[in-house]
Design brief:
The chain is mainly α and 93 residues long. The protein is built from 3 helices and no strands. The N and C termini lie far apart (86 Å). 0% of the residues are buried.
Length: 93
């Protein structure tokens, strides 16, 4: 019987696997600094935190609605241009 060779990873592979394992262990939540953790806790304990967040969301929503309105206007312009071109083509026939 011939003996099969035992797999031996290179030192570079071992180092890479260790790095991946270390990153994977914290991947679900990320790593926060102590300052970031304290900031997050203070924000959540602030009685006005949700009011601030609501205002931010409303401001963002307002910007998105403006973009949507602009896109809808442009859509209408394109539809009208297509219809005009279609009518011109029909009139030529």
């Amino acid at each position: 019987m011939s003996e099969s060779k035992k797999y031996q990873p290179t030192p570079e592979q071992i180092a890479k696997w260790r790095e991946i394992q270390e990153l994977d262990s914290t991947a679900f939540a990320g790593i926060l600094t102590d300052e970031q953790q304290m900031k997050n806790v203070k924000e959540l304990l602030d009685p006005n935190y949700f009011h601030y967040r609501l205002e931010e969301v409303r401001t963002h929503k307002k910007k998105l609605l403006k973009k949507l309105a602009s896109a809808e206007e442009y859509e209408q312009v394109l539809i009208e241009a297509i219809e005009r071109k279609k009518r011109r083509m029909e009139n030529k026939l």
